[in-house]
Fold:
Amino acid sequence: MSDTRPDATARAELSARIDTSKPHSARFWNYFVGGKDHYEVDQKIGDQIKEIFPGLVDVALTSRHFLGRAVRYLAGEQGIRQFLDIGTGLPTADNTHEVAQRVAPDARIVYVDNDPIVLAHANALLTSTKEGRTAYLDADLYEPESVLEAAAATLDFSRPVALMILNTLGHVAEYDRARELVRRLMDGLPSGSHLVISDSTSTSPGMIAASEAYNKSGAVPYYVRGVEEIAGFFDGLDLVEPGVVQVTEWRPESGEAVRTAVDAYCGVGRKL
Structure:
């Protein structure tokens, strides 16, 4: 397992960077999926948005379920043993390394985030099977080459990697820039690598209203996009069936309830 756990001084510095006076996307999402790592300000905006658009709770939960199915598919059916998870968020149940290492105990996972709240909880993600490895990088999506360089200490970039960017690209205001960041990351990965993306979408008036209310709360804005824009992130890749679809419709497993009105879309693409 990784030895990059923060020491006491680093933890104190991280705590000093945490602002509890404004809502925060990772804590807000944590509240919606039933976690405990949030504050009153996050719960307040969460309850407000539930009144505006109760369906956002379904978006949070079903997006998390998609993560599990995508990782099981990649590790189980495609033999992927390396995962680069950017925009990790706060730990909950069935994080990427837990799902991957259940299928393949030798899987290696690198988590990437630069948010002090997320980094303060990094220890919870730094467990691993003895055969595999996990690591956590304090790095920035806006610096793709630096992310790849640091991840190379854990991952072997001569072998396929699954790049996971879930519910994160909405924080990049300019769509063209978001596409460029994805392209630069994928350019650094070998053939056979996969891109996994999910994000909330502007596919209902309720979701658009919820996004506007959230962005007015003082939190770092999150911009919902059209389905065609989500699909654009996969240009040049071989889309895995069923393509870019609602998160509930991507290879649902036996017993899963499908809610067709979920305003979140996803896809998995393979680099040729």
